[in-house]
Specification:
Layout lengths: L5 E5 L4 H6 L1 H10 L4 E7 L14 E5 L1 H4 L2 H15 L3 E4 L8 H4 L6 E5 L10 E3 L10 H6 L23 H13 L8 E5 L11 H14 L4 E4 L5 H12 L6 E2 L7 H9 L3 E5 L2 H8 L4 E4 L6 H4 L7 E4 L7 H5 L3 H6 L3 H16 L4
Parallel strand pairs: 1-2, 1-4, 2-3, 4-5, 5-6, 7-8, 7-10, 8-9, 10-11, 11-12
Helix pairs in contact: 7-10, 8-15
Length: 356
């Protein structure tokens, strides 16, 4: 068989999904160092992957290229015919993403997820969502590289990393200093709210836990992370309810994903709701502690790698049988401030002693 020259990894959807997919890209690059690894993502999140050493080319699709189906088809056809891929890994394997394989039936390895309709176009379908597999999402993603073991040893890595330049980090650091941040003290990036309401921890509980941190660790500085709109309203309400303390900053704004990454890289720790910002934090090597909603399995979405990352979910408190008898809100509210703080405070103490 001819050498692997070009590999296409297709990973549409949100920030967290695509960040975890980096582990697959890095695995492929380490296993086939002379091959080009191309990455397909939504245009709005593509800047996160600029300059990544394991991604040679990024193909993006914006709303105007996704919605008119004929425009989408044309671009997919152009991508595969201009590159002649040896491997296509379709991480979602939807009707739309399968077009990459349909237009490239000569590709020796067309890998994706097992679904009822994928067997017609994928010659290596993988059961990545097998319920019997007690593994996290990164490990499930890495299963998509296993068919390539037939041609070469695969060097697997669970690490998923993002990269920003020293200039980007330094420029945002100066901005933070100008906004009153003291880099001789711990800086906590706080995910006080979420884009989706059903993933947001009880705001009264969030207020309670932030008060405890401020009372027992008054040297800690907090930066509230939020997006414009209802998230900003939530953040301001919590800030006002806390009495607008000097060591909380709500006016440090990242105007792009690259700036959000620079903010994360200049932080000491992340605490708050699980979401895209938390994935960025872990990908930059910053420790974190997250609160998982009942809709997001902690065992699935909190992968273990070289970066310290902990969290809490209803599964840590209640057996599945008990949860089945409760409403979604009751399960979420079982994550009380007391349960959070008894896990979080020892981490804060270790962090301040530079033991993490």
């Amino acid at each position: 068989m001819k050498p692997i020259r070009k590999i296409l990894v297709i990973r549409f959807r949100q920030i967290g999904d695509s960040i975890l997919a980096i582990a697959l890209c890095s695995t492929l690059k380490r296993s086939f160092p002379t091959a080009e690894v191309h990455f397909v993502v939504n245009k709005n999140i593509a800047p996160l992957y600029e300059g990544h050493p394991d991604i040679d080319k990024i193909f993006t699709f914006d709303k105007n290229e996704n919605k008119p189906f004929h425009v989408y088809i044309k671009k997919v056809w152009q991508v595969v015919h201009q590159n002649q891929y040896d491997v296509i890994i379709d991480m979602r394997s939807t009707i739309r993403t399968l077009l990459f394989s349909l237009f490239s039936l000569h590709t020796p390895f067309r890998i994706g997820r097992i679904k009822g309709y994928t067997r017609f176009l994928l010659n290596y379908p993988i059961d990545t969502y097998n319920k019997s597999l007690n593994i996290d999402m990164v490990q499930r993603d890495l299963l998509l590289a296993t068919p390539l073991e037939t041609i070469a040893p695969i060097t697997y890595t669970k690490d998923f990393k993002l990269y920003i330049t020293d200039t980007e980090k330094e420029e945002f650091r100066e901005y933070m200093i100008n906004k009153g941040i003291d880099f001789s003290r711990p800086i906590f990036l706080i995910g006080v709210t979420t884009k989706l309401a059903y993933k947001k921890w009880n705001q009264k509980f969030m207020l309670d836990i932030l008060r405890r941190i401020l009372k027992e660790h008054n040297d800690i500085q907090m930066i509230f992370n939020y997006a414009p709109g209802h998230e900003e309203e939530d953040a301001k309400n919590i800030y006002n309810a806390l009495g607008c303390p000097d060591n909380i900053k709500i006016n440090i704004q990242a105007s792009s994903l690259r700036q959000l990454a620079a903010l994360a890289a200049n932080s000491t720790f992340y605490f708050g709701n699980e979401g895209g910002a938390r994935h960025i934090i872990q990908a930059l090597g910053i420790p974190s502690f997250s609160i998982f909603s009942p809709s997001a399995s902690k065992s699935m979405w909190l992968p273990n790698n070289s970066t310290f990352a902990e969290g809490i979910s209803a599964d840590d408190i209640l057996p599945q049988q008990k949860q089945a008898e409760m409403t979604y809100e009751q399960c979420f509210d079982s994550i009380t401030p007391e349960e959070v703080y008894k896990r979080l405070n020892p981490i804060i103490l270790k962090l301040k002693k530079n033991q993490l």
